[in-house]
Amino acid sequence: MAYKYLIIGNSAGGIGAAEAIRSVDAEGSLAILSDEPCVAYSRPMITNLLTGQASFNNMVYRSSDFYTENRIETLLGKKVAKLQPSENKVTLDGGEEITYEKLLLATGGTPFIPKMNGLQKKGIHTFTTIKDAEEIRGKIQQQEIGEAVVLGGGLIGLLTAEALVTMGLKVTVVELLDRVLAPLLDPKASAMVREVVERNGIQVVTGRTVTEVLGKDEVTGVQLDDGRWLPCKLFVVAVGVAPNAGLAREAGLKVNRGIAVNSRMETSIPNIYACGDCAELLDFLSGNNRPIPIWPAAYMSGMVAGSNMAKSPKEYDGGVGMNSMHLFGFPVISFGKVNPTDAEGCEVLSKTDEVRGAYRKIVLSGNQIVGAILVEDIDRAGILLGLMRRKVDVSGCKEALIQDDLGLISLPRAVRSRMFEMSVKKNVAK
Amino acid sequence: MKIQINEEFCIGCRLCEVYCLVEHSQSKDIVKAFKREAPRALARVHVEENGPVSFALQCRHCNTPSCVYACLTGAMHKDENGVVLHNPDRCIGCWSCIMVCPFGAITRDERGRKVASKCDLCPGRTTPSCVEHCPNEALTLVAEA
Lengths: 430, 145
Fold this sequence. Notes:
The complex is a heterodimer. Chain A is α/β, with parallel strands linked by helices. Chain A is built from twelve helices and 25 strands. In chain B, strand 2 and strand 3 (53-57) form a beta hairpin. The chains are: A alpha/beta, B alpha+beta.
């Protein structure tokens, strides 16, 4: 088989690229290949599938005729064995060969499993795919699980725990650091989220990790590094994902933590592009490239890759770590630098409403926003993110930024007028 | 076509909000929309006011819509006419769109299942209701320059 465009990966990055390609080149042959056997779905919704609140049909990311309408051939449930860039070719597990003119690696992330004893036992899961969700759901339906342990108090870990506790399990989250969501939130917001998850029945153990999975063939419990033993029949490892860059590395592409790309999402080898969680994307705050494993960055970097593959030059203007969380309906948004060190000389604005459980913190550096946390009052968070992205000098409106009734009216008129003006023009970025 | 905001002409009367709500009500009747419909429809245009300054803001239907790119489910999308639309049935209330909209033009609809709420440019109308009912041309329709 031969395609003008071959995309490996059928999630946000791959779809973003396919849509961008089709907006430029309506005809060039295009195929999306994925080891997952299904059409693109909303990966974050696997928690909803686990609890039974959503079926797969509720989770599809694009309409049912998306692939046919866009003349995209799907090669699903197929695994790539190797890339052969010198021949513009990929070889599948079964030996089948596919040639391409332009190749995109949108292979996402692989769940990271820390070293511990007893990992070969049955009952250990990661939680990033629909298959993971189906397996865990099947298990809970088939047998009395009772107790579950989730390793990792980051966003995926807490979301997993939320789903499991909703299903009636007794859930303990074990986090190595001294607080949950440590990189995403500051200690105060982290404590507020911890209070919410604990109030909803999740036990949280911080400053500890799992050293051994116990049980004969099947998991019966886990051993913590303080000697404590937690019984469980279900053990979910959710400590994070690492860029899935194995194929690229073996094929000789430059790979650091993720696949190295330039602003056009080109890798170190001609005609091969990478985007999303498998790549190292530009962080517009630091100016450096690093993995930014979030959905919006995957989609946008995919769009840029696709556009360049179809010879419509476009540069990625960068992403930033950003998350919108709503554990047990408790809304929290955070982005950028939220835990500045003293040495960084940042200015911090913050405001707490103890009665309503609301909290807002904005981190400034040189009169520009470099990070923010909004707890409970999340409305209009995007205004702050936009000011940060455009590096707007906010010295004239600092006091207003921290108010929960922040609006465009709070900004200097010149800033607002420019936004209004640009919004009625064609080809406006940002 | 895009809606232009002319803040120097806005008198803060909030008729845009009133008529937006009516347009998005079941009955499209002003009295019924406010007094009889439960839950009451939501306005998707919002007047911001500070002393003598005011303006009405609705979704700008960006050419590069951050909300569409950030949407986890595909609920937020841009149609063939360039209108950014939101399908509440597919929305899971993750508020990613609220996180990324630089105008803060998307709100939370918490009347039932939590979903996002935004301007849809009044499908079926040639002139959006807010523009049509603005008494002072503080909202006008313009061709994209």
